[in-house]
Q: What sequence folds into this?
């Protein structure tokens, strides 16, 4: 069996980056012209748009597309980094509690009637919740001193946060329930330029994760091996977790929980381009951007003028797809 | 140059794992640690790797305390292969070996040259493009050894620490391994390894150390350590020691 795939097929880094880059450009252009109002691509290129079209483009579609791409890239890169750090291809940023912590605080904010503070208050509390939960998981994990300890702490704290969300939903009014649910499923429906400025804050952290590529490669060998290659493992762990916590909680605070991207995208890249983080991280960023852009494109056009929360779409497609991947590639992934 | 410790002890809770062990590995020698399971071989190697801190006594690299040397600096002179490696991501074999060069600041071109050298010297050319996770246990171990060799291939004052490196290897590759570390020792590297195969250890080591329950009970050239009485003491096994007629290589039978 192993003899048969003596030389496994792999796409080279340059090819993968060029292909994904071009695809991202193409999908971006498609997203710009499609929607309830279709824009003629030739007029877009020639700059001959009507005032209404220009307004739609600049105030609605452009910020939404930028948000799609950066959130997708950030979540996918966080997934890749967390999987490497925990040496587990099935790990996910949610494992360190970011998503559920952010969701819990956002739900709490909505139910406690913090509505007067508006979007900023909602985002702010989600952000605080995400970071707090991560610190809690880290603290419990440090006491146990092992990766599995931290993962178990993550699972337990996730469960507590989820039951908290359940409790809030139980206490909420119908209208509140709807906004909690919509938010927990992820939606780019309220994208605007302010949100774009906020998401731009995550870009340096995505680059910082890329900067750790070699260290992440080394840590997949094992903690002892990484240390003997000159890496201060606790420091690396702290950095990677904080960066991903920041990226994910900012994303969650703006657009809600974007599921499956952090899990599936790095997985796909590993299968096609290999495990080295120098390739994995930039390719995941591009593919994450493409996937979220596509998914959000569908969710805003298929049921137009109504919108399907993008998280539902991602889970409907991502779930079965992931099962298929696991069934087909168990041996290759060494799970 | 040397790595050494004097009267180093290490304990976990109340259990004493190493009891006032003194050990010196010098440039250019191959030193084997032998002893029964749980004798303290792995702990001693980990002390030298800086992976464990002794409860008393200090490990020194030359005249500097190992704990005072930065991790990155340490990694440029000391390479450590733990007993079991848990890489479970589908890296290519060459990519795994490349990781060995991370601590060095020698530049990409030079690193690639070294990696190719190690790959051909250690009979890995046909595996170079394979995916690590699809390899057999012995093949994986050879890749890990190659990674360790690449780490310090060109370095002066290089020290290699191996914890049972040859256990998963077939006979041909066990011999190839010892031939290769013999060459490295001639070029000035110091090598410390824990090993169970007494015949291999006796044949290829410059010095041996026999540990029992955390204490050194014999130390010296192979013929001084591999004696009927000392093996009886260390392993509780009755053996016969022979000398091969043609080249007086020590052989143990049981």
A:
């Amino acid at each position: 069996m192993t003899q048969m795939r003596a030389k496994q097929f792999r796409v080279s880094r340059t090819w993968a980056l060029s292909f994904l880059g071009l695809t991202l450009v193409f999908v971006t252009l498609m997203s710009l012209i499609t929607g309830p109002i279709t824009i003629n691509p030739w007029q877009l290129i020639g700059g001959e748009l009507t005032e209404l079209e220009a307004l739609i483009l600049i105030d609605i579609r452009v910020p939404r597309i930028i948000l799609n791409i950066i959130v997708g890239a950030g979540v996918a890169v966080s997934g890749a980094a967390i999987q490497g750090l925990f040496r587990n291809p099935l790990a996910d940023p949610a494992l360190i509690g970011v998503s559920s912590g952010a969701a819990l605080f956002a739900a709490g904010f909505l139910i406690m009637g913090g509505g007067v503070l508006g979007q900023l208050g909602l985002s702010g509390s989600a952000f605080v919740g995400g970071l707090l939960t991560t610190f809690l998981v880290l603290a419990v994990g440090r006491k146990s001193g092992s990766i599995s300890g931290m993962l178990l702490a993550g699972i337990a704290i996730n469960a507590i946060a989820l039951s908290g969300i359940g409790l809030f939903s139980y206490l909420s009014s119908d209208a509140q329930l709807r906004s909690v649910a919509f938010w927990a499923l992820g939606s780019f429906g309220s994208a605007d330029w302010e949100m774009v400025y906020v998401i731009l804050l995550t870009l340096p952290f995505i680059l910082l994760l890329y900067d750790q590529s070699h260290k992440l490669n080394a840590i997949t060998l094992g903690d002892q091996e990484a240390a003997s290659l000159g890496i201060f493992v606790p420091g690396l762990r702290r950095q990677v977790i904080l960066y991903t916590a920041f990226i994910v909680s900012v994303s969650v605070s703006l657009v809600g929980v974007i599921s499956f991207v952090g899990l599936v995208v790095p997985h796909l890249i590993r299968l096609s381009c290999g495990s080295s983080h120098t390739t994995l991280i930039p390719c995941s960023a591009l593919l994450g951007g493409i996937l979220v852009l596509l998914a959000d494109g569908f969710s805003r056009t298929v049921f137009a003028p109504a919108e399907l929360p993008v998280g539902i779409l991602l889970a409907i497609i991502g779930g079965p797809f992931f099962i298929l991947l696991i069934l087909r590639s168990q041996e290759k992934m060494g799970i | 140059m040397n790595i050494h410790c004097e009267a180093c002890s290490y304990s976990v809770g109340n259990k004493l794992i190493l009891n006032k062990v003194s050990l010196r590995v010098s440039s250019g020698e191959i030193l084997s640690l032998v002893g029964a399971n749980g004798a303290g071989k792995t702990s001693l190697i980990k002390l030298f790797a800086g992976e464990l801190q002794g409860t008393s006594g200090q490990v020194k690299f030359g005249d500097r305390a190992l704990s005072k040397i930065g991790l990155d600096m340490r990694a440029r002179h000391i390479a450590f292969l733990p007993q079991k490696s848990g890489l479970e991501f589908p890296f290519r074999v060459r990519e795994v070996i490349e990781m060995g060069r991370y601590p060095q600041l020698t530049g990409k071109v030079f690193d690639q040259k070294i990696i190719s050298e190690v790959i051909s010297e250690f009979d890995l050319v046909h595996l170079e493009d394979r995916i690590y996770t699809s390899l057999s246990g012995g093949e994986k171990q050879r890749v890990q050894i190659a990674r360790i060799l690449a780490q310090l291939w060109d370095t002066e004052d290089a020290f290699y620490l191996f914890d049972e490196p040859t256990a998963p290897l077939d006979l041909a590759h066990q011999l190839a391994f010892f031939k290769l570390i013999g060459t490295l020792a001639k070029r000035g590297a110091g090598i410390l390894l824990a090993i169970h195969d007494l015949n291999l250890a006796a044949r290829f080591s410059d010095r041996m150390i026999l540990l029992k329950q955390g204490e050194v009970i014999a130390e010296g050239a192979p013929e001084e350590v591999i004696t009927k009485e000392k093996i009886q003491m260390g392993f509780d096994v009755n053996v016969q020691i022979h000398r091969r007629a043609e080249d007086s290589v020590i052989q143990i039978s049981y």
